[in-house]
Write a structure and sequence with these properties.
Length: about 280
């Protein structure tokens, strides 16, 4: 049973790797020429379009190993409960990463557009060239590129794109665009100042994250202390899993300790996140 559990865990680990993201629909729709590389017929995207194993499913093999070692179905129940919680945490972390990438993309878009303007291009053409090298506009990319290409309301399209998390700097770009169109002011100068301001704000956020990295490491270490205690008990010749899963006192300690562990992690995480927001 232990060998079966280990094989199952290895299979899930191999299959739970991140899938390659598809190309952006807007870029495909507005592509001038060239063929689109389709995935091969043997790829998982064609053979298994519905099954998408994610990292949160690794909780089940780990729970299965614990259930076999402790001879109790309780770890399987806890593993099933942990799957949606881990999925929520992973999605939140992915959203934060996307937001950070979008912030950097807005900075790059401002700098690239200003560079194209200095090269002699018109604002609409400069935006088209600059947007082709960044992935910051997201779902509003088609509207922004269409407005720039066909003489539409580019500032309004940029303000719509700025509603995405991390793309708030596009609202400043829309304001620079509106001022340049209405008063004839230099758009490149405004974009340079906007880029400098956004870059300074991004550097400040990165510095704050670096300062809080130690706090997050401490929280992770505290979360792993119960596992280290179980390992030490096992190394000393005891059977902590049997005590936890098959005795009344062990079950009481498991419930109370789990509640205290969860409350402590939530409290510490809330303190650190409050520092990040400030």
């Amino acid at each position: 049973m232990c060998a079966t559990a280990l094989c199952l865990a290895g299979a899930v680990w191999l299959l739970a790797g991140g899938h390659e993201r598809g190309r952006r629909r807007a870029r495909l729709l507005f592509a001038d020429s060239g063929a689109v590389a389709l995935p091969p017929w043997w790829s998982w995207e064609r053979l298994l379009p519905v099954i998408r194993l994610r990292r949160q499913w690794l909780c089940l093999p780990a729970a299965l190993v614990a259930a076999v070692a402790g001879e109790s179905p309780l770890p399987l129940v806890l593993g099933a409960v942990a799957v949606p919680l881990v999925r929520r945490l992973l999605r939140a972390r992915e959203r934060r990463r996307d937001e950070d990438r979008r912030v950097q993309g807005v900075i790059g878009l401002c700098g690239a557009t200003a560079g194209e303007l200095r090269a002699g291009l018109q604002p609409a053409q400069a935006l088209l060239f600059a947007a082709g090298s960044t992935d910051v506009l997201g779902d509003a990319e088609a509207a922004v590129l269409a407005a720039a290409r066909f003489g539409g309301d580019v500032p309004e399209a940029l303000r719509t794109a700025a509603r995405q998390p991390g793309a708030e700097g596009l609202a400043g770009m829309a304001a620079c665009w509106r001022v340049a169109v209405d008063s004839g002011a230099g758009l490149a100068v405004g974009l340079d100042r906007l880029e400098a301001a956004l870059r300074a704000e991004s550097d400040q956020r990165e510095d704050l994250k670096a300062q809080l990295a130690g706090a997050w490491s401490t929280i992770a270490l505290l979360a792993l202390l119960p596992v280290a205690g179980l390992a030490m008990g096992w190394a000393l010749g005891a059977d902590p899993l049997h005590v936890l899963f098959h005795t009344t006192a062990g079950l009481a300690c498991l419930v109370i300790g789990g509640l205290l562990e969860t409350a402590g992690l939530c409290w510490a995480g809330r303190i650190v996140r409050a520092g990040e927001k400030a």
